[in-house]
Amino acid sequence: MKKYLVLLIAVLALSSCGSNTSIVNSWRDPDVTVAQEHFKKVLVVALVKDEASRRITENRIAASNQIFKTSYQFLNETTKQLTQEQKLKILQDENFDGVVTMRLVSTEKETNYVPGTYTGMYYGGFDGMYTGMYGYGFGNWYGMYSPSFYDPGYYQETTSYMVETNIFSLKQNKLIWTGTTKSEYVTDLGQTVDAIMQAVVGEMKKDGSLPK
Description:
This protein is α/β, with parallel strands linked by helices.
């Protein structure tokens, strides 16, 4: 029970989000699927560095399906001093049968070189020259004799966020699915939560944890 509660309160330290999200790896309990569990009420746990980010994350997931309930409604300042067993009893009394947790595993900085672009000189042809000069005005004429343009390349640093999503069965008191996602070009917390959940659901349908 204590070990399970530690997993429940794992910290999700995301401070921003992005749309480029993919599954890095995943695992499912071969003896049970999420579909078999018939979850009716699932607690969403996403503890972050600040309360506002925690609520944004949990609200975003809860909005996707009515079976999801935010943890800040049940595990908050009023329950902070309770024992682990007392906190778990709250969940049992509230008839929760599943839990989804999210936590930041790591951040990785990557530096990539973006090549420069080259626009070559365009001379046109004999017909093109006169068509350009007398048919379409200065813009077309200048295009035929424009000099070469070069936009130099540059190095770009991006930060990738590795986030672990776990699904627990409270009835069996066991982990039944876990997956790690990688999110790049992070700009908005809410959108990245959406992207993570889409990636998770897609992987669960792929491995048979959810019906396609």
